[in-house]
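Contributing new records

If you add data, match the layout below exactly. Sequence lines come first and carry their own label; structure lines follow with theirs. Keep one chain per record. Anything else will be rejected by the validation script.
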Amino acid sequence: MKAALLLAISATTLASTSSKYDSCHSAKEYITTYNFLKENKVVSLKSGDIQKIANEVSNGCKHSAKRFIKIYSVLTRSGLEASNAINLATEFSLKTDEHSKTFLTLFSESFLEKYLDLNIKDAVNISKKLALDLDGDITKIKKDFQKTVSFCIDDKEINLTGPKCADIATKVVTSGAKYNVELAPTFLKMFKYATSKKGTNLATYQAINLSLELIKNGPYALKNFKDGFEFAREKKNLDLTNMKAIEFGKTMALRSSKIKLESHRE
């Protein structure tokens, strides 16, 4: 089932739009959705329910029916209850193609055995949260998730379990979305530095926690931490122990971002 999912997701490429206004073939979107649900044998819906769903999907403008059908099909093939798949597919029909593509990518890498191998409920919840609920650039969200997952399930790296890797990836993506940047590269660099003998020389779990803590403060946190840590550790400067130098570096990293102050003219 999970192998078939990968083929289903890669079979369709959704087009993206960039203009301020789209021309909407709302009737076509309604009719396509209506006919799909009417002919679908997986779920039994009354005519009024089909009309209600088709009406909602038609509000999504260009490709809304395609988004609905694609997500509904992938989720039901993966074992999600049809009613839940309809609700989620309807939500994404009102979003952009990029939101749909990101959700499908996140879902596949959360659900498939060769990635995180999560159960259907957890895979859907994580993918929905990251693709729908965050305000950051959706493409950056997708890239951050993929890079983090690739790293933490690699048996040559830290080789974590699916649930633990999902938790880390979610935290990395959430921090990146806050600043609207990709923070997975910063997280990975920080982890390498934190486990290096030339760096903080921490155990794996300590390095993960430190890296996650630092990236909450944005893309400059790594440099501020390293500069502060190395300065504090040098004998000619503060000459602190390793752990105290880490705390000093963390203090500097905490100041890596600040809400802009508004200047008022008299």
